[in-house]
């Protein structure tokens, strides 16, 4: 009986280790795919920027390239197989979303006070489409795997990519309204997107905090 019990316990332990390794690999794979997609997006936007020379396009390029870097702390957390590191990575993602909202708000208000309609509208719209597609793909990958692995940090990062897709789509809308002659449409759309990002920030914060509370709660 004791040998049988020991054997069952031994097998159960191996099952836990196997699950942990599998979860780590799947998480790293999801983060790697999304990082690759966003990297290609940034390179494509850089090509358009070189051709067009638009400052607005450069700003969107830098924004998307910086957002791709949020994958790094998550990858480290999955490699370490550390719930604590994963929670900290989730908090870093939420902070990145909040910073994005603040940057968008400041830039939108600045353009309302000192209107400066963007140039190279076709290039700007093209960059917006590229950014939207890249971020949507990254959001789907992160969100699906995050829900499957029950990873609040990865789910929050999916929300982050989704927010960036909205920002890129707003770039297309801005180019359209400016082309129609409504120069203030650009900053007004920017303020609307800021509100959307702030709502996603709150939602992602609740997701990460919920995961933290669950980890610290009673068994």
Describe, in plain words, how this protein is organized in 3D.
The chain is mostly helical. The protein has a single domain (2-212), classed as Alpha-lytic protease prodomain-like (Up-down Bundle). Helix content is 89%, strand content 0%. It contains seven helices and no strands. It has helices at residues 2-52, 55-68, 71-80, 83-113, 121-149, 152-179, 185-216. α1 (2-52) runs antiparallel to α3 (71-80). It is elongated. Mean pLDDT is 75; it is low at 5-17 and 213-219.
From the N-terminal CA to the C-terminal CA, the straight-line distance is 28 Å
> Which CATH C-level class is it?
Mainly Alpha
Helix % is over 70%
Provide the CATH topology: Alpha-lytic protease prodomain-like
Count all strands and give the number.
Answer: 0
Q: How many helix segments?
A: 7
Radius of gyration: 21 Å
Pairing-aware structural class of the strands and helices? mainly alpha
Just name the CATH architecture.
Up-down Bundle
How is this structure best summarized?
By secondary structure, this protein is mainly α.
Defining traits:
single chain; 219 residues; mainly alpha; Alpha-lytic protease prodomain-like; elongated
